[in-house]
Design brief:
The protein is of the alpha/beta class. Helices cover 33% and strands 19% of the residues. Bound molecules: flavin-adenine dinucleotide, flavin mononucleotide (FMN) and iron/sulfur cluster.
Length: 661
């Protein structure tokens, strides 16, 4: 045995279905459906993870009824045409030895008219915290119709060759709305005591079981805790789990946490510790004998092994870990676990892209969701390549190039690798982001990249190197003050206040007591810098011309957590306000929609501008001018200063084309 994970790689058999190991990709929306049917992208995506050794895949939440369009590109499992799609996916997954189940879901009130062209169907007259539409309260006949549609959907999934079905009864989806006294205020036999509130779920299970038969699986996903004052607690979940077990219809339980009110805790960023949901999971596990799938930022096989060994769960969801590295299971089993590309928990290319309506991918793994598009063409000629810059884009390019047989030397001007990621990891709670650099460095060295630190590339060095290909990945620097362009604001006069950049804030160069952070990007950098300064004892005020401070963190799920921390640390937030100038000791902010409405902030000593970077592309421009005898490429922030997703994606694409005819 090459590995140290005896429990993780122990097969498990449930109702005659043998799963080869305990690693699960739990359900996650991909936005890959075409015309609401499984697509080639689904096949490629799940096949990659099956090939990489995962034991069990649970396919994303599929909608079960025309009132259940979960999102614009979800699969409609109730359509007969879905069978062929399920078959395409299940065949490819089975070909690699993994098992596959489909999750069936109805969002109940958490849809809107424009998704379904019907009112949302609710258990009671309680609207969605997201959609804010008063729902249509389901009649008994409509409940019966829904249950029949669950049956149709189960039948389609099974006809598509899948190994079973999982009913989503957590995360405030419809079955959970029936279970919850908050959503369920009915006075008929579907409301009131727990037996009544469970009736809907039980009827769904009763319809599903005979269709599934004795040789394939029926699972239920529950939220162990809904993590609100008014939601379900673990004691409620235990009672429900015990009742489900007694029915004898169900083969496993998958325990998550969170609800639509605490959505950021279902799929949290790195702000939450690895394994954060498991303390709840084990409480349920102790009370039932059904196999349990546990989940929650289990990003390393060591944590998964410990989880199984300690009897916390029987199988472990490593969902985003598998998005980040589809070969995680194989690498762990083959004794090269240190090569697993780490999920850094930024929730950008996965969760953010999902909310933007785009097919999911991964910040650190651009192949995720683009398996076909980024399938590397064969290398036809070996090249010598010089990479200038050891940030994430330079490192990724070097790794891909070296893996493809090219001779690569990477030069980094500073004394260490990682570029701006080093600073990103210094923001409070953002340490895990730095694991990306460690991983990229390890891979680069293993692949034979020659790494030269404190080696600033200039045009003369390039000419002397005789490289066939030069890739400039020299990154970016904070933009020079002033910034006149946001919403047509004129150049800002800052009077006696000192002007600082994001980098100054991160590197401890802000000294004044009262600091104004002007964030016109809305990503983690601004809010993270404000938090860092507040932690260091500065009095922090933040303004942005956008309607919400740190607006882009709403889709990553960072927003509720960082806002709570910022406010607790005394930060004052002014959305919809532009900094106009600093006059007579006061920073003057104007309301974006009524410029004559001013706020005066007295005694501001320093202003930290988080207003984007300027490309550090001097080397590239010089090389363009000199037109040497080599192919020249510009990638990452040096191309246009954005973020990690773009830097790593561009590196991958450019590096794949080198040496291809
Ligand atoms: C505090 C902070 C927080 C951030 N948080 C996030 C986040 O949450 N999510 C996100 O997506 N992005 C974030 N970013 C942005 C992200 O880090 C950058 O977009 C990314 O690092 C760009 O990668 P890059 O390799 O193109 O450039 P860089 O990371 O800038 O690396 C360029 C490297 O090239 C070197 N170099 C420059 N010139 C030369 C030369 N002539 N010769 C040799 N070497 C040279 C530099 O020293 C540097 O190491 C953050 C940035 C900061 C500063
Ligand atoms: C983009 C995305 C979509 C998700 N969609 C679903 C879903 O359809 N059904 C579900 O039960 N959980 C869904 N989840 C939650 C995951 O199944 C899992 O519980 C969560 O990501 C935490 O596990 P992890 O830390 O291993 O990623 C989703 C997660 C992500 C990242
Ligand atoms: S985008 Fe970030 S959180 Fe999502 S899977 Fe990739 S590394 Fe993990």
């Amino acid at each position: 045995m090459k590995h140290n994970f005896p429990h993780l790689f122990q097969p498990i058999t449930v109702r005659g279905v043998t799963v080869r190991n305990r690693i699960v990709s739990t359900a996650h929306d991909t936005n890959m459906a075409v015309d609401h049917l499984p697509s080639q992208a689904h096949v490629d995506y799940h096949e990659a993870r099956a090939r990489g050794g995962v034991g069990l895949i649970v396919m994303e939440a599929n909608s079960v009824h025309p009132t259940a369009e979960i999102h614009g590109s979800c699969i409609h499992a109730y359509l007969p045409e879905a069978v062929e799609g399920f078959r395409m996916v299940s065949e490819r997954v089975h070909a690699h030895g993994a098992k596959m189940i489909v999750q069936l879901a109805h969002q109940g009130v958490h849809v809107n008219f424009h998704k379904n062209l019907t009112p949302a169907w609710g258990v009671s007259e309680v609207p969605s915290v997201w959609e804010r539409e008063i729902p249509h309260v389901m009649s008994r006949a409509e409940i019966a119709e829904l249950i029949a549609f669950y049956g149709k959907s189960v039948a389609n999934v099974m006809a598509g060759g899948m190994d079973g079905v999982e009913i989503s009864a957590g995360h405030s989806y419809l079955p959970a709305q029936f279970l919850s006294p908050w959503y369920n205020r009915r006075t008929d036999e579907y409301g009131g005591n727990l037996a009544n509130r469970m009736r809907f779920l039980v009827e769904v299970l009763q319809v599903a079981r005979p269709i599934i038969g004795d040789q394939r699986l029926l699972g239920v996903r529950l939220s162990g805790e809904e993590l609100t004052d008014f939601g379900m607690k673990v004691e409620d979940t235990i009672e429900i789990a015990r009742s489900i077990e007694k029915l004898g219809l169900v083969d496993y339980l998958s325990i998550s946490t969170g609800s639509m009110h605490t959505r950021h805790l279902i799929v949290p960023t790195m702000a939450l510790q690895p394994g954060y949901q498991l303390p709840t999971t084990v409480q349920v596990k102790r009370e039932v004998s059904l196999p349990i799938i546990g989940v929650g930022r289990v990003i390393r096989p060591e944590i998964a092994e410990e989880t199984i060994a300690a009897g916390i769960a029987d199988l472990v969801g490593m969902t985003r870990a598998l998005i980040a590295d589809p070969n995680l299971a194989r690498e762990a089993e083959q004794g090269v676990a240190e090569e697993i590309r780490p999920c850094i928990g930024v929730n950008q290319a996965c969760r953010e892209r999902f909310f933007l309506g785009k097919s999911i991918s991964c910040t650190v793994n651009p192949h995720a969701g683009r398996e076909r598009k980024l399938a590397p063409p064969p290398t036809s000629a070996r090249k010598t390549v010089l990479v200038a810059g050891g940030g994430p884009s330079g490192l990724q390019a070097a790794i891909v190039l070296a893996s493809r047989g090219h001779e690569v030397s990477l030069h980094e001007a500073s004394g260490s690798l990682g570029g701006q990621v080093r600073m990103a990891g210094l923001l409070p709670g953002r340490g895990p982001i730095a694991s990306l650099t460690e991983h990229l460095e390890l891979l680069a060295r293993r692949k034979g990249v020659r790494i030269n630190l404190e080696s600033r590339v200039d045009a003369a060095m390039v000419q002397a190197s005789g490289a066939d290909v030069v890739i400039v990945a020299s990154g970016s620097k904070p933009r020079a003050f002033p910034f006149p362009e946001y919403l047509g604001a004129r150049a800002i006069a800052v009077g006696e206040a000192r002007v600082r950049t994001l980098w100054d804030a991160v590197n401890g160069q802000v000294e004044g007591k009262r600091v104004l952070v002007v964030d016109e990007i809305g990503r983690y950098e601004g809010a993270g810098a404000a938090e860092l300064l507040a932690e260091l004892g500065h009095q922090v005020t933040m303004c942005t011309s956008m309607p919400v401070v740190a607006s882009r963190l709403q889709v990553t799920g960072d927003y509720p957590l960082i806002m709570a921390r910022l406010l607790k640390k005394g930060a004052v937030l002014h959305p919809l306000h532009l900094l106009e100038d600093v006059k007579a000791g006061a920073a003057v902010l104007a309301h974006v929609h009524a410029r004559d409405q001013k706020l005066r902030l007295h005694g501001i000593d320093e202003i930290v501008f988080v207003c984007g970077n300027h490309p550090d592309d001097g080397l590239y421009q010089e090389l363009v001018r000199e037109r040497g005898d080599f192919d020249l490429h510009l990638i990452g922030d040096a191309n246009a200063p954005r973020g990690l997703d773009e830097a790593i994606y561009e590196a991958e694409v450019v590096a794949q084309r080198v040496g291809v005819n």
